[in-house]
Amino acid sequence: MERPKRNAMKLGTIIPCLLILALASCGNLQKDDQKIELVRKPYLQSAISDSISILWRTNTGDNCNVRYKLRGSKEWSNADGVTRITNTNVVEHEVTLFNLNPATIYEYQIFTDNQQFLVDQNLRFPSPIGRKDSIFSFFAVGDIGEPVEEGGTPDALAKALVPYVDSLKFGLLLGDIIYPDGKSEDYDSNLFQYFGAVFPYVPVFTILGNHDWHEPEENYVKEWKLPGNEYYYSFDYGNAHFVGLDTKMGDVLYDSAAQVKWLEADLASVGDQQDWKVVFLHHNGRSCTYKNDYKSVVGLYPIFEKYGVDLVLNGHAHTYERLNPMDGEGQVVERAMSTHSHYQTPEGFISITAGSGGKLRGVGTDPKPFHPDPDNCKYPNLVAASSHTWAFLTLKIEGKTLEGTAIATKDRKVVDQFRISK
């Protein structure tokens, strides 16, 4: 009589297990049947040498690939990529293309599990130019992803950049990319949703600002694919060398001793091989804006002078300002100023604040009225030009001439122009 009882107990154990397995199987089928949707349009990263990385995100999916070809060609090539679950519980796809022809326009298509997205859009990118090429344009701007509902203008910046897409080889995002604290969950709402007509066509290189410096390993680093350790790095483009630095919260550089040692070794290794050296970082050194001078950046000035840095680009102050050439002590090099807009074989380096990409002093969450700090303006002839408006900077290198143009986001009027000739 006991035996049937034991069998009954066994069946009572098996039946719930079968129910659990059935439910689990139904759950998997539901995931497999889920419609794949694009939740972040493609964006271009690490356009260096003969390669470029294309990333996009979907709500689900297991495999990804990119088809690409030379503009005008009928022959498509294919490259498979990798997928990963993100910290916001969506799927990121990454495909890196190699052996690209230099200075060429490529068309591309993106696929997740054999489903193509953005079929009606002519997706394209410029491959990196070769070392012998010396004509290219790029943009630079910082302090971008302020929420629109709080007075930010990332939407206006994106629209203003669209007419320049086909002339730009890449862009530099100068920190404070996502307000208020650089969280991954805010990247799409505060940035990517507005740049769908820019980022799929123009590669960008980014650096951290103080608002991005909140658990960056779990946020910022998850959003971008950059060279080196992704905090500070360098790359060559044409006849120019670019160096991105991490100034963290401004008072002390990230990994300060190691970063400074790396910076000096990097610039020393370039020597005279490149015609131009450009440094981009978030915090200002000397300034005549409402921001204080940051000693951690001023402390880099001797290195900039020693290794012949030409241009230093930063954000942080929500305004636009261009300084005259400075030496390693932060003093204006008077003999370098033929005019305040044309510098002929100048000594020293020129520093520019372009920190009003999406946020402006006196507006929204930065409501204090804009007034240049008199204590900061104690340096004679420091400021060459300034304009308190939303603006971005475009720069063109043509051989040994560099031209810069600051453009107002709202009406696209030119607010500053300068030229450096060597």
Strand order of the largest sheet: 12-11-10-21-22-23-18
Overall pLDDT score: 91
Rounded to an integer in angstroms, the radius of gyration calculated over CA atoms is 25 Å
Helix content: 10-25%
**Helix- and strand-based class?**
alpha+beta
Say how many strands there are: 23
Percent of residues in beta strands?
Answer: 25-35%
Number of helices: 7
Largest sheet: 7 strands, mixed
Please tell me what the overall shape is.
globular
Low-confidence stretches: 1-30
Order of helices and strands: HEEEEEEEEEEHEHEHEEHEHHEEEEEEEE
Distance between the termini: 103 Å
Question: Can you walk me through this structure?
Answer:
This protein is α+β, with helices and mostly antiparallel strands. It has 7 helices and 23 strands. The chain has a 7-stranded mixed sheet with strand order 12-11-10-21-22-23-18, with no helix packed on it. The protein is globular and about 65 Å long. It starts with a helix and ends with a strand.
Brief characterization of the structure:
By secondary structure, the protein is of the alpha+beta class. It has seven helices and 23 strands.
